[in-house]
């Protein structure tokens, strides 16, 4: 039984599957498209909100260093993703990588994890977008009925019509093709980056040196609770750290890490990339470098404009400009945040549908969902199904308490991918790797430790909910996936075997 649970799918077979006419996605993305996707999904509410929270509560002006620390953790994972995505250019991201290196059951577990991560992330972002749009409408004198507004914290029956409508519109765009999605994303990302650059350039004129004193505030004891002071940390290490000081920077890093979530979604588009061996590493690493640089600059400017003790937690960037007597910038930033969340939502939805598509093509989910649209060459069936489900969830469910599930799911994927790099190096040293993670196994091991450390900082309730979802996934696998997988049935690809110069690193 153990041999069937850990049976691996050969890289060559995974690549052959992408050539089957009924299951082949259209290759239309370039390195620039991938970088835009990455920047589009990474820059979201994190940079507009988390800066004030962690500066005021954890790190002071040293929040810039916290962004650096979080960026390093993500960079370690990005190096591992880049090797896998260029070696196995197949839809599914960490799921596909796990199938090639760890085996079917681990692949199912990570795929099930990603379905939750991306679905919940899409719904959470849609609800956040709805809040920004409702606020802008209120400012314009248009007021939505309470029953059609955000459900977060609301009483009684209601449906967040704006959040649901956004998901449905983005679903239609994704059905029409990833190139159209890339064009829409490029326009929105241009607006979003313009807003961020405006904050950096305009805000630099209002910086006061006194606001950086002290740059690293004196450490303060914290009460028992979540974060680095979680029961898991105290159980394993027997100590309770403090906010501010040097440890406050690491506390802040565990929070601002959430602002980086999404760069791994770029890997789910590997199969739709024209030259994945060359462009996937560029898209993944390039988008991460751009976003980390912007995050650090914004945090330096904002903490220089207003003393960290006075920063707003809900809208630090906008309120910092209000405090300097420039409310026009505040409205411009709010508009940019609302527009920016559109791309975050769309790219998370794209990532989820590609994972679902890859799992169905392998037979772990019904094969009905693995057929692409005859004209647009997109996985229209899972896109429509998941889009409708997420629209309903976003409309009816207050999601603030569940948002942390997105973070633990992402970190879990980081751990699995890093381990997979080491195992595939040992089991398939013959594979051509257009990009190689440096210093293996040191970098993957460091990535595992860093990701697991941040996982430990999440509340115990998040671990419990994550565990319940994983148990449900195992039940589904043993009742359906294990017996219906193509490996279990001995099915092979119907695509012609590529000759010299064929697709992929065969």
Overall pLDDT score: 81
Q: Look at the helices and sheets and give the structural class.
A: mainly alpha
Estimated helix fraction: 55-70%
User: Can you write the helix and strand succession as a string?
Assistant: HHHHHHHHHEHEHHHHHHHHH
Sheet with the most strands: spatial strand order: 1-2
Number of beta-strand segments: 2
Tell me the radius of gyration. Answer: 22 Å
Please outline the major beta sheet.
2 strands, antiparallel
Low-confidence spans:
224-229, 233-241, 493-506
Q: Choose one word for the global shape.
A: globular
How many helices? The count is 19
- Terminal Cα span: 29 Å
Sheet-strand content, in percent, reads: under 5%
Q: What does it look like?
A:
This protein is mainly alpha-helical and 506 residues long. It has 19 helices and 2 strands. The protein has helices at residues 2-5, 11-17, 31-42, 45-59, 63-87, 94-101, 104-139, 161-176, 178-204, 231-237, 245-256, 276-305, 316-323, 327-361, 380-396, 404-427, 442-456, 460-484, 486-489, and strands spanning 220-221, 242-243. It is globular, with a radius of gyration of 22 Å. The relative contact order is 0.21. InterPro entries: AA/rel_permease1 (IPR002293).
Give a brief rundown of this model.
With 506 residues, the protein is mainly α. 65% of the residues lie in helices and 1% in strands.
């Amino acid at each position: 039984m153990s041999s069937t649970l850990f049976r691996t799918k050969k890289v060559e077979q995974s690549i052959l599957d992408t050539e089957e006419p009924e299951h082949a996605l259209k290759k239309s993305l370039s390195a620039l498209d991938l970088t835009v996707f990455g920047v589009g999904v990474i820059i979201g509410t994190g940079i507009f909100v988390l800066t004030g929270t962690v500066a005021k509560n954890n790190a002071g002006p040293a929040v810039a260093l916290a962004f650096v620390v979080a960026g390093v953790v993500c960079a370690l994972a990005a190096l591992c993703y880049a090797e896998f995505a260029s070696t196995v250019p197949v839809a599914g991201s960490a799921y596909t990588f796990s199938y090639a290196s760890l085996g079917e059951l681990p692949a199912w577990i990570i795929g099930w994890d990603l379905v939750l991560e991306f679905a919940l992330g899409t719904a959470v972002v849609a609800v956040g977008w709805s809040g920004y749009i409702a606020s802008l409408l209120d400012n314009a004198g248009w007021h939505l009925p309470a029953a059609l507004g955000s459900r977060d914290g609301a009483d009684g029956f209601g449906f967040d019509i704006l959040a649901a409508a956004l998901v449905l519109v983005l679903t239609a765009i994704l059905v029409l093709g990833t190139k159209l999605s890339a064009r829409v994303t490029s326009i929105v990302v241009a607006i979003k980056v313009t807003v961020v650059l405006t904050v950096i350039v305009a805000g630099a004129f209002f910086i006061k040196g006194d606001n950086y004193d002290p740059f690293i505030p004196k450490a303060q004891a914290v009460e028992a609770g979540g974060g680095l002071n979680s029961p898991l940390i105290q159980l394993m290490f027997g100590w309770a750290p403090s906010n501010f000081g040097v440890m406050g920077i690491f506390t802040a890093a565990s929070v601002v890490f959430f602002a980086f979530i999404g760069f791994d979604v770029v890997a789910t588009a590997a199969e739709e990339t024209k030259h994945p061996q060359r462009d996937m590493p560029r898209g993944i690493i390039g988008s991460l470098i751009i976003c980390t640089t912007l995050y650090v600059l914004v945090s330096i400017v904002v903490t220089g404009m207003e003393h960290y003790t006075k920063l707003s937690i809900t809208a630090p960037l906008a309120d910092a400009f209000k405090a300097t007597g420039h409310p026009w910038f505040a409205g411009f930033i709010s508009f940019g945040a609302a527009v920016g969340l559109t791309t975050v939502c769309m790219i998370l939805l794209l990532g989820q549908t590609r994972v679902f598509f890859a799992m169905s093509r392998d037979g772990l989910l019904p094969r009905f969902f693995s057929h692409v649209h005859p004209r647009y060459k997109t996985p229209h069936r899972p896109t429509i199904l998941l889009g409708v489900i997420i629209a309903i969830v976003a409309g009816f469910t207050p999601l603030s308490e569940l948002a942390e599930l997105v973070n633990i799911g992402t970190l879990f994927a980081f751990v699995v991918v890093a381990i997979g790099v080491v195992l595939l190096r040992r089991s398939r040293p013959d594979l051509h790797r257009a990009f190689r993670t440096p210093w293996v196994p040191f970098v993957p091991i460091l990535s595992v430790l860093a990701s697991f450390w941040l996982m430990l900082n999440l509340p115990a309730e998040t671990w419990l909910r994550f565990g319940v979802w994983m148990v449900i996934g195992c039940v589904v696998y043993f009742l359906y996936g294990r017996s219906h997988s193509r490996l279990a049935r001995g099915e092979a690809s119907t695509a012609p075997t590529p000759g010299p110069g064929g697709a992929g690193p065969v």
